[in-house]
Amino acid sequence: MAWDLARVLAHAAARPGKAVSRGLAEADGCVLGTPLVSPGAVPPVDRAAMDGYAVRGPGPWRVNGHLEAGAADPGTLTDGQATGIVTGAAIPTGTSSVVRYEDAVVTGDRLEGPADDGRHIRRAGEECQPGDQLLPAGVVVGPAVLGLAATVGLNRLTVIPQSTVAALVTGDELVHRGPSGPGRVRDAIGPMLPGLITRAGAQLVGSGVRHLPDSLDELTKALSEMQADLILVSGSSAAGPADHLRPALSSLGAEFVVDGVACRPGHPQALARLADGRLVLGLPGNPFAALVAFLTLGVATITRMRGLRLPELGHIAVPGGVRCHPTSTRLVPVRLTAHGAVPIGHGGSAMLRGPAVGDALAVVAPGPAEAIAARLLPLDPGIT
Ligand SMILES: Nc1nc2c(c(=O)[nH]1)N[C@H]1C(S)=C(S)[C@@H](COP(=O)(O)OP(=O)(O)OC[C@H]3O[C@@H](n4cnc5c(N)ncnc54)[C@H](O)[C@@H]3O)O[C@H]1N2
Ligand code: MOO
């Protein structure tokens, strides 16, 4: 299956989560399920934009007191009156201007200074009016959205919650500390998965990445038991005697959405749906191939679960050219420069050196010779 089609099918196969109401702190990283509408005006009243004196009419003025930031009733000024005020405090009724401390000349209770009408005043409703739609549904909730929600007085947001992802790393040869050696391969996929899952906008469930031996029974049991919207399984995607993913999926009656992708690396990746709707993503055991598979099918499914559209990938020039594969899409680690993308090598399917120093992957369409342009797939799935 062509790489682009596999991505689209993976996106279409996932179900968007149902919108729920969440407190602001718990809504971080979720997607707005309904538009963010301001219940009131912001600011609710006219406020001082600078520390100084609220004044009325032309100077000089007589200073009659000082307003604290939390003063509930700022009172009223008459012509020729001034009151000390702090940034953000409600201004007294009748205020025509605020004179900054650094512009003020104070002699006893007499104040002089520049006072253009309306200067240094934040008007009520200047940021928004009651009922204004500030953000549409489908926006990812980040720090600024949380701050905005609080500014307009909201305590909760309606959001599509993060989807849940479980991660299984298989392989009898894998070790999790120290170097590789004869009969030992250091697990390089397990350490990548939590960050990839979180950056993609999902939540790793269980007690983190789970390690399984090459056993059909154990894999089948784990797949039938793990409660998550998406289950990642690395290292049993090919056709060898220890590659149990496809037999396990068959025994569970799973239906394949994608069964192999025409891309290099990562061609054995697969996505299947279990009878109860949970999705299972097979990540090839070669570490760069596993990363490519997560960025291809994993990100597409999580994107849909978040209620988001599959982002279009932008095009970039590859001025030095990059070799095409005749029938498969190539995913090539590149550095981004002012002139375009530059392949950086070390992009073999068992290597992570290229992607670790790269800024992105160039998506090189199949073709007979060399490409001088490609699309860009972010290596950080949090970047769209
Ligand atoms: N007869 C075929 N053999 C292979 C094919 C094929 O189509 N037909 N495809 C090759 C490609 S391409 C890939 S990629 C791998 C996929 O293999 P599996 O997903 O079954 O994974 P393994 O066989 O267990 O491992 C392959 C390779 O990767 C190393 N590995 C596995 N897990 C990890 C890990 N967590 N960290 C680091 N390295 C890992 C493992 O030791 C093997 O060297 O199959 C090819 N063969
Ligand atoms: O295509 Mo495999 O997925 O190269 O390593």
From TrEMBL:
Residues 166-304 form the MoaB/Mog domain. Belongs to the MoeA family. It catalyses: adenylyl-molybdopterin + molybdate = Mo-molybdopterin + AMP + H(+). Keywords: Magnesium, Membrane, Metal-binding, Molybdenum, Molybdenum cofactor biosynthesis, Transferase, Transmembrane, Transmembrane helix. The chain crosses the membrane at residues 279-300. Its cofactor is Mg(2+). SMART domains: MoCF_biosynth (SM00852). Catalyzes the insertion of molybdate into adenylated molybdopterin with the concomitant release of AMP. Its EC number is 2.10.1.1. The lineage of its organism: Bacteria, Bacillati, Actinomycetota, Actinomycetes, Propionibacteriales. This is Molybdopterin molybdenumtransferase. Pathway: Cofactor biosynthesis; molybdopterin biosynthesis. One of its GO terms (biological process) is Mo-molybdopterin cofactor biosynthetic process. One of its GO terms (cellular component) is cytosol. SUPFAM superfamilies: MoeA N-terminal region -like, Molybdenum cofactor biosynthesis proteins. GO terms for molecular function: metal ion binding; molybdopterin molybdotransferase activity. Pfam families: MoCF_biosynth (PF00994), MoeA_N (PF03453).
